[in-house]
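Ticket 4471: requesting a sanity check on a complex prediction with FE2/S2 (inorganic) cluster. Repro inputs:
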Amino acid sequence: MAVSQAVQDSQVTVQDQRENAEIGVADILSSYKGEKGELIAILQDVQGKFGYLPEQAMQQVAKFVHVPESTVFGIATFYTQFKLCPVGRNIIKVCRGTACYVRGGSRILDKVERELGIKAGETTPDMQYSLETIACFGSCALAPVVVINDKVYGKVTAPRIEKLLKENTTD
Ligand code: FES
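Returned structure tokens:
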């Protein structure tokens, strides 16, 4: 009995979240005309609101601008600015470019992965951290480079990682 009640409660919660997301997207769409050329701007607004592009939101957007869902999904996956999964409150990016690699970038990535307990491309279960890798930040003179919440840290060493994460991230 308790289990079926819990299942019912969780269904209600999922339903509530879905309805809230629909309302949130409808709010965004109300300031657009529904033209195909608005697609990227709408997706940027949706991501600004939810932190990523929920599948259901992309379906609503596709309907609104009269394009197939595959078109919206194609754009969402083409542009790296768009996220298809929820991201953590803190985004850590480690450079995997050549200059960083030759100066110990892979050791830095290993260390960050161990500190956070996740691999590149993953988010911690508590949604506190997402870990990404980038091909080159364009700051090769500072190699190896790590970016924490859009702030660039150069000449990073593995022992310094723990301190950087502690001092530059939020709970
Ligand atoms: S290779 Fe890392 S910043 Fe260029």
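Notes from triage: Residues 95, 97-100, 136-137, 139-140, 143, 145 surround FE2/S2 (inorganic) cluster (CB under 6 Å). Leaving this open until the requester confirms.
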